[in-house]
Amino acid sequence: MVTDKKGNDKSSGVQVITRAANILNILGAESDGLSLGKIATAANLPRSTVQRLVGALESVDLLQNGEAGLTLGPAFLRLVSSVHTDVVTAMRPGLEALAELTGETVALTRPSGKNLTVLHCAVAAGELQVTPRLGFARPLYSTSAGRALLALQSDEEVRRLFSDEFRPPHDFSIQTISGLIEVLNTIRQDGISYDHGEMIEGVKTMAIGMNTRIGHLSVSMLLPFGRFEKKHEFCRESLNEFRKKITREIGVW
C-alpha cells in the first residue's frame, strides 16, 4: 500500500478520481441524462458508490440533476468552453491559411461522445462555398471527419463505443460495425477519409485525423462535385502538409 506523509492510503484517492472521471465520461456520451441506476450499470459500480460520487460532483457543479436525470453541470461545461476556445485560438491561423491556399472551406471538428462537433470553419473567398453549422452534431461514423477520428482508435474501442447504438440510414453505404471497421482500416492505411456526397448532396469531403496534445481533432475540406476531381490531389497534399505542420507545432499525444 502506498501512503502519503500522513499515512493515508494514496491508492484509494486515485481510485475515487478514476471512478469520478469514468462517471463524467459516461454522462458526456449521454446528453439526455441518466439515472443513478443506469450510471451504476454503465460504470460497473454499486449504486451506493455511484450515489456518493455523484453527490460530491454535484456539490461542485460538475454534475446537475434535472427532470431527465443526471447531466454534466455548469462547472464542467465552463471547463469545456475554455478548452474549446483554446483549441480554436491555436488552430485558427493554420485553418485560415489552408482555406486561402486551397480555395475551399475548411472545418475543424472533434468528437463529443458518439457524435462529431464542428468547432470552427474557415470559409474560402471563392464562389460556391459549403459551410457546415458550428456545433453541428452527427454520428461519428456518418461523416468523413468523424471516420477520420474513429480511425485514431482501436477496433475494440470503436466496437465498444457503438455497442448499444448503431443505426445508420437504410441507404447509407456502411450498415454494420464490421463494415465500418473495414472503412477505418482503409483510412489508417491511406491517411485520408472521404465522403462522396452521402452527408451533403452534391458535396464531397476529405478529412484527416490528428491525435494532438490538445485532443483528437479532425480537419476536413468540403468541395462541390464539380471541383473535386480537378483539385483532389492538390487538396489531399495540402491536408497532409497541414497535419505535419500542426503535429509538429502542437505535438502528438
UniProtKB/TrEMBL annotation:
Q: Which Pfam families match?
A: HTH_IclR, IclR_C
Record-linked SUPFAM superfamilies: GAF domain-like (SSF55781), Winged helix' DNA-binding domain (SSF46785)
Q: Which residues cross the membrane?
A: none
Keyword DNA-binding listed? The answer is yes
Spell out the SMART domains in the cross-references.
Answer: HTH_ICLR
Which residue range or ranges hold the IclR-ED domain?
68-252
Lineage: superkingdom: Bacteria
Residue intervals of the HTH iclR-type domain: 14-74
User: What keywords were assigned to this record?
Assistant: DNA-binding, Transcription, Transcription regulation
Q: What is this protein called?
A: IclR family transcriptional regulator
